[in-house]
Amino acid sequence: MNIAMTERKPAAAQSLKDRVSLVTGSTSGIGLGIARALAGAGSAIVLNGFGKPEEIEAVQDGVAKDFGVHVAYSGADMSNPASIAEMVEMTLDQFGRIDILVNNAGIQHVAPLQEFPVAKWDAILAINLSSAFHTTRLSLPAMIANKWGRIINIASAHGLVGSAYKSAYVAAKHGMLGLTKVTALETAEQGITCNAICPGYVYTPLVEAQIEGQAKAHGIPREQVIREVLLAQQPNKRFATVDELGAFAVFLASDAAASITGTSIAVDGGWTAH
Fold this sequence. Notes:
By secondary structure, the chain is of the alpha/beta class. The chain contains 8 helices and 7 strands, in the order βαβαβαβαβαβαααβ. Helix 1 runs parallel beside helix 2 (53-67), helix 3 packs parallel to helix 4 (118-146) and helix 4 packs parallel to helix 5.
C-alpha cells in the first residue's frame, strides 16, 4: 500500500487563517497528518512530540515551507503536567492565543490483565487521557477570553468497544469520550466545541511495520495480514488515511461545525456498526 505521507495539499479557502493550533503527538503519523491539514487551511501550528532533533527540524521546516504558516515546536513530555503547562505557556507567549487544540498523543501496550505491567498502565493513562485533561484545562481560559475555540480529542474505536489485552488503552479512550462530553457541556455557551474522533486502523509507518512483522511471524501474505488480522473487525477492509483524518479535523475546527459538540464520531470503516 503506497500512501503519500507528506505531499502538499491545496488549502481549502484558508478557512483557518489567523487561527493557532496546538497538536500533541504531531511529529509523525496521525498527529502530523492533522497538523499539516490545519496548516493547509491557514492555521499556525505548534508541533509536539519526540524524535531526533534533525528529524523534528525537518518536519517543522517542511510544514512551514509547504503551507507558509508559522510553525513552532514543543518537546513537552505529555506524561508530565508541569511540562504540559510549559508547552501551553510557550504557545501563548509566542502567539497570544490558542484557538484549536488537538489531543492526539498516545501510546499502546498489549498484555493480559493479570500480567499487565503497572508502570505501563500508569504511563498509558497519563499520556492517553490525563494529558488531554491538562491541555484542555490550561487552554480553556484563552479560548473563553476569545469566545471561540475548538477542542478535538483523538480517541479510537476502542473508546466505543473493547478488545482483549488492551485494558489500559481501552480504559483511557473510553475516559477520553467522557472528558469530551463534560468539556462540551461546560463550554457550550462560550463559542467553544469539543468533539472526539474515533478512528479504526489508520495507515501510518507504525502500522506498516506491524504488517511486515505479522507477515513474517505467521508466514502469511501481506494482504492476508491486512484483511484477516489487522482489519478483521473493519467491514470495509481498508485503512483510513492520515489525510482523511486531517480533512475531518479541519471540518470540526471550522465555523461550519459550530453546532457539533459533545460527539464521538467513528471513522472506522463500519467496525462499531456490528
